[in-house]
Amino acid sequence: MAKELTLAPDRCFEGDPKRKEIATYLHTQIRNLPLICPHGHVDPRVLADPDYSFGTPSDLFIVPDHYLFRMLYSQGVSLEALGVKNRNQPEQTERNSRRIWQTFADNYYLFRGTPSRLWLDQELYEIFGVRKKLNSLTAQSIYDQIAEKLAAPQFRPRALFDQFNIEVLATTDAATDTLEQHRAIQASGWRGRIIPTFRPDGIINLDAPDWRANIDKLSEVSGIEASNYNAFISAIEQRRTFFQQMGATATDHAARTPYTATLDTIDASLIYQRALKGDLSPADTERFTAHMLMEMARMSCDDGLVMQLHVGSSRNHNDVIFDHFGADKGADIPLQTEFTRNLRPMLNKFGNDRRFALLLFTLDETTYGRELAPLAGHYPAVKLGPPWWFFDSVNGMARFFDLVMETAGIYNTAGFNDDTRAFCSIPARHDVWRRACANWLAGMVVKGLVDVDDAEAMMIELAYGLAKRAYRL
Amino acid sequence: MAKELTLAPDRCFEGDPKRKEIATYLHTQIRNLPLICPHGHVDPRVLADPDYSFGTPSDLFIVPDHYLFRMLYSQGVSLEALGVKNRNQPEQTERNSRRIWQTFADNYYLFRGTPSRLWLDQELYEIFGVRKKLNSLTAQSIYDQIAEKLAAPQFRPRALFDQFNIEVLATTDAATDTLEQHRAIQASGWRGRIIPTFRPDGIINLDAPDWRANIDKLSEVSGIEASNYNAFISAIEQRRTFFQQMGATATDHAARTPYTATLDTIDASLIYQRALKGDLSPADTERFTAHMLMEMARMSCDDGLVMQLHVGSSRNHNDVIFDHFGADKGADIPLQTEFTRNLRPMLNKFGNDRRFALLLFTLDETTYGRELAPLAGHYPAVKLGPPWWFFDSVNGMARFFDLVMETAGIYNTAGFNDDTRAFCSIPARHDVWRRACANWLAGMVVKGLVDVDDAEAMMIELAYGLAKRAYRL
Amino acid sequence: MAKELTLAPDRCFEGDPKRKEIATYLHTQIRNLPLICPHGHVDPRVLADPDYSFGTPSDLFIVPDHYLFRMLYSQGVSLEALGVKNRNQPEQTERNSRRIWQTFADNYYLFRGTPSRLWLDQELYEIFGVRKKLNSLTAQSIYDQIAEKLAAPQFRPRALFDQFNIEVLATTDAATDTLEQHRAIQASGWRGRIIPTFRPDGIINLDAPDWRANIDKLSEVSGIEASNYNAFISAIEQRRTFFQQMGATATDHAARTPYTATLDTIDASLIYQRALKGDLSPADTERFTAHMLMEMARMSCDDGLVMQLHVGSSRNHNDVIFDHFGADKGADIPLQTEFTRNLRPMLNKFGNDRRFALLLFTLDETTYGRELAPLAGHYPAVKLGPPWWFFDSVNGMARFFDLVMETAGIYNTAGFNDDTRAFCSIPARHDVWRRACANWLAGMVVKGLVDVDDAEAMMIELAYGLAKRAYRL
Q1: Smallest Cβ distance to B74: which of A16, A412, A451?
Q2: For site-directed labelling of C24, which of A397, B431, C211, C242 has its Cα 20 to 30 A away?
Q3: Count of structural domains, chain A
Q4: Long-range contacts from B51-57, C-beta under 8 angstroms, 24+ separation
């Protein structure tokens, strides 16, 4: 077994030497462009504290990353053994960081051919200088090597932020968040541009776990007592203004479906009252979310915040995992999704409004060519976000290009965002996207579908310009 | 920026030199075969008048082509600026053809990587002799060049028809059409074969915009007063016979879904009576269409007209656009489609009948491998039309070959049709299909899945034979 | 026309010489590994009788193979002409084996580019030494050649079993089968490992054609009078034990949908009683199957039999064919399928149980990336079977790798099974899989996504290890 870890300079590029050469040329043109990170889940705390440390290699890589531990869990490794806290039996959670790392390394072969492996190998190689493949035998020496680096000042998050050449990084924050961390970052005089994103799921989805508490929080932070529907709307508007003042350019919304519909104010008020009394039907919840998505679009027309819609996940599919470990533990499974009918009310009302920008994300790739590209290729307001979650991968990107671009054109897409909570994976994720773009464009050049000049212009847009404009940065 | 417009001789062919060489060989074998155009939307008026002129370059290329103006609209260009008539405010419509052309050229970069660009560049290059890339700077000189050509006698449609080497061209005509233009063509002594296609949507879909007026028209042109269901059926049969006498070999049907079901005559009569009185439920409409598709299949068994079924478009998705500009303005969005259950009644009744030929078209590519190929690979009556509308593209064709051919074989497909109203785009569209076929076949040769002899035989069928036989031409 | 039949040594491998070289290397590494055949439909009679003869070339190749005759039927050849027995008019069935073969050869061109052609050419070439392409002219001489071989002792099934290097072959057997043939094989002293698979569709699907008779049979063979629900469950458990004693390691279940739900015992008992009285509603049937799938999962936890679930076929779509020729005549058409919601009850109850193994098969490829890979990449119990039926093909496999592996990883898949009743096609089918794997892995090596060492380890798993472990062999 070869033990050396290498990164092929032409990785992600397909076989024909001529095509590889063109892809390499295109990639070289843009590889030093700054990273635009307009959507993600990095904890702002990481950048608020100038001395923040990532902890041990296991703390950094494994414990918080559901992409990684779900795969090991699927093969019979317990989450406890990976350091994920079982809230009912916390004492069963492995605390020895080296032992967690060893378990991970023992099973690292499971990731062969997956994007996790691609990202992780690149992080190990480029950020931490690792030159051996991670496996049972090399586990502890690689652990030492990473641990040593993490102790050094160049591995503080702000230093890495600069090294990664990030131009702007957006976090995702509850609508009720007071953005203390963002305030601290701004007050610190540090020049990194970290902006919040307004995510109101916890207050507009009436079945959100702590909805009632969130409403109290909303009243408190907005200074508007959200005791009736009108006040609730006012409080949301107030929070949007606050987020915008703190630098936000976008909102983000998660929903099971993209169903949109307008309620009249009386209906909306009645449902809101029932929600406050804890007396809701599932139909109430569904209709209210559909209505509030319309309201969010209306507000976006007014304040100019770009609206992101991430739909189609059946969250917490595995009750056992949810009961013991909580949300975001790799047990969210995609659902069939329908956009053409569901989005029609919203698009009829706001889709022709030049002030409105709606960025769509899906976990159902069958909608790429059938629904999303035709919608984006017609409505001025609609643009398509990059492949999301399970599809943020070499093949997932290739399918996205294949299915979307002929109908929508690249200019109705929103470039890349890494959508990650793993700060150190950001450069690798952007690099995979940029390489996948270069590979796709090179394929078109070789097929005589675009010339090199056009491919180069498209490459710059895909790597940098589209995201910046789509998010109004 | 390179300013020269070039057409790579090996365009659409993929990278490996050996594969490209085989593709080039296959393409060369068939490139001079005549074009079979068995389904499209060219206005027969264009060919009825021997002196017909296409007007200005903008009249020819932009104003009538919803593929083009929907893309510019999606990026914020108004339809009025592109010369599309706003029926509520006609005075806002740009009438200066040069200004329209300039706007189009300014935004031509939006089409990078799209089939529209591929077709248009080929038309500009091969038909109009353009050698510069269209952009803001070259717009007016290219306008001049096209305008000059259009004034010449070689650019009359009939001359182009011959130059394009079209063997037969089918138009699509309302069931109530008297086919005056076709009569004029036939009477003129010109030898071009232009045939009508019988499209009864306006009379069998009870919710068609002018249904009542269409029924009056039907009574008038057929000489059969369609005041009851039986007379309605007789009138349709009369029209089919007339179309067939005028050269038609096929019918064409658009429906939101492929739902088929037989009503008994009493039910059908009652619904028809309610329709005449304007007293319909949506369920009536749906059931009647399902029933009439069965009737159309029955008539096809009797008269031998090939039945085309185009399903799955949500027409006029954008109310604003429909209200101001009408239908076919780029605002039709595909829907999920189901064939296995929906077509079962029709196929059980007529699918084993050797007299019946049913050609299926879809906007939902997920049905290619799952439903359509298995149906075509079993029922004698069923054949699959080529990739349609959004999928009439290099990648769309590649996916069609990939998903359909292993199960259906090429002999259960219907070759190519261009489905276009843009007369000058016909050669480019057929050429893209032929190149995509050559590329696909070359890929199989390189993979050792077919030998060159078989590939050559398949190439001829795909380019010419399949369409001719499927449409009984 | 070239008349020679050749098999390219690098068939199924894609074009770039470097990629082909790597694929060839990987294929060479594993080409002599034994075949694991854990799921199929070979009649055990074939191997129970040491002197079993396959009959004529038409008996062997054509009459029993619905992949072949459905294609000819779709092009207007009657099933009778291919020797398929019309049970209403048996006298119309062609009995002349040479004439059947000639008809087949005359139409063999229809299979160009299909997996049937790939398998058959390889069988003809490698097993029967044919060196000419099958067509109208060569039909009879090839018939002679095959017939001569079939008469020789080396062409007895047991001799071929050894020559094919099959390590284990599982048949599929009704739950009520007494496994006489398996007993005979075991008693014969022959060392070939032939094991049964427990398939209870005929007793758990209450609308199965001979359900009542099957229950009587169940009572008889189990010695437990299945006159009530509890006894029915006990009888099933008894049969599972018997199958396991006879070597079975797996069960197999066919269902239209993967809907699972638990009934309480009273409901289950009442439905069972209604079924015995022939007084069922469709809802009863659906709920009972959903419940029995849960019961089967429970039993699998207890006895360790691997549970296979094949879903999504609309059986006997064509009534005419069913009435005249019966089931399995090429008229089964896939349906849209939904796993995320449907399997949730079963996976919540048993999906975390390490004793449980659930292998999923689909005819709806849209579920590969959206539902199946995420489920397999999370639940310890779930693994994915290889591409099934219409998708057991070069392109079908490529799509499977593309859509599944990045999310599930190869280790959550179950390797290959041939699922065939055509014994002589087994080596060709496994070879296509192995080549498709080698081609896929070589593509990843060329793209720098895995190194050659990892690719080699993955190749061995895909060709041999995964199937063996997934089926607990």
Answers
A1: A412
A2: A397
A3: 2
A4: B51/B156, B52/B156, B52/B157, B53/B150, B53/B151, B53/B156, B54/B150, B54/B155, B54/B157, B54/B423, B54/B424, B55/B150, B56/B97, B56/B101, B56/B147, B56/B150, B57/B97, B57/B101, B57/B142, B57/B143, B57/B146, B57/B147, B57/B150
Q: Which amino acid is at B242?
A: F
Let me know if residue A238 belongs to a domain: yes
Angle between helices B139-150 and B97-106 (to 10 degrees): 130
Can you give the pTM of this predicted structure?
0.98
ipTM of the complex: 0.97
Chain A residues in contact with B335 by the CB 8 A cut-off are 340-341, 370
pLDDT at A1: 47
Closest Cα in chain C, distance from residue A267 (Å): 30
What residues of chain C lie within 8 A of the CB of B407, using their CB?
Answer: 114, 390, 393
Of the candidates C340, C377, C444, the beta carbon closest to that of A113 is on C444
Cβ atoms of B263 and B288 within 8 Å: the answer is: yes
Whether C81 and C230 map to the same domain: the answer is no
Say yes or no: A134 and A189 in one domain: no
Q: Helix and strand tally (H, E) in chain A?
A: 22, 11
- C19-69 confidence digits (pLDDT tens): 999 999 999 999 999 999 999 999 999 999 999 999 999 999 999 999 999
Residue of chain C nearest B442, judged by CA positions: C15
Per-residue burial over A346-371, b = 16 or more CB atoms within 10 Å of its CB, e = otherwise: bbbbbbbbeebbbbbbbbbbbbbbbb
Q: What's the mean pLDDT when you consider all of chain B?
A: 97
- Put the strands of the sheet holding A35-37 in their side by side order: A35-37, A166-170, A194-195
CATH of the domain at C432: 3.20.20.140
Domain boundary among C155, C174, C200: C155
Site from C336, C346, C378 to mutate, A interface, most A CB atoms within 10 angstroms: C378
Over pLDDT 90: what percentage of chain C? Answer: 98
- pLDDT above 70 coverage of chain A, percent: 100
| Chain A residues closer than 8 Å to B432 by CB | none
Structure tokens at B43: 């206005």
Chain A residues in contact with B109 (beta carbon < 8 A)? 411, 454, 457
Count of positions (residues) in chain B: 473
Confidence tier at C1 by pLDDT (50, 70, 90):
very low
A226 and A89 co-located in one domain: no
Distance from CA of B88 to the nearest CA of C (A): 44
Over 80: is that where the pLDDT of B2 sits?
Answer: no
Question: Alpha-carbon torsion B338, B341, B342, B344, what sign?
Answer: positive
Average pLDDT over residues C143-158: 97
Same domain, B279 and B130: no
Domain match, A186 and A280 both: yes
Residue that finishes a domain, picked among B119, B152, B185: B152
- Per the listing, tokens 């050396």 go with A4
Q: What is the mean pLDDT of chain C?
A: 97
Q: Does residue B268 surpass a pLDDT of 80?
A: yes
Summarize the confidence of residues B210-220 as an average pLDDT: 97
How far apart CA B103 and CA B126 sit, in angstroms, is 23
- Is A11 inside a domain boundary? no
Q: How far apart are CA B54 and CA B369, in angstroms?
A: 41
pLDDT of residue B318: 97
Domain that residue B115 falls in: 54-152
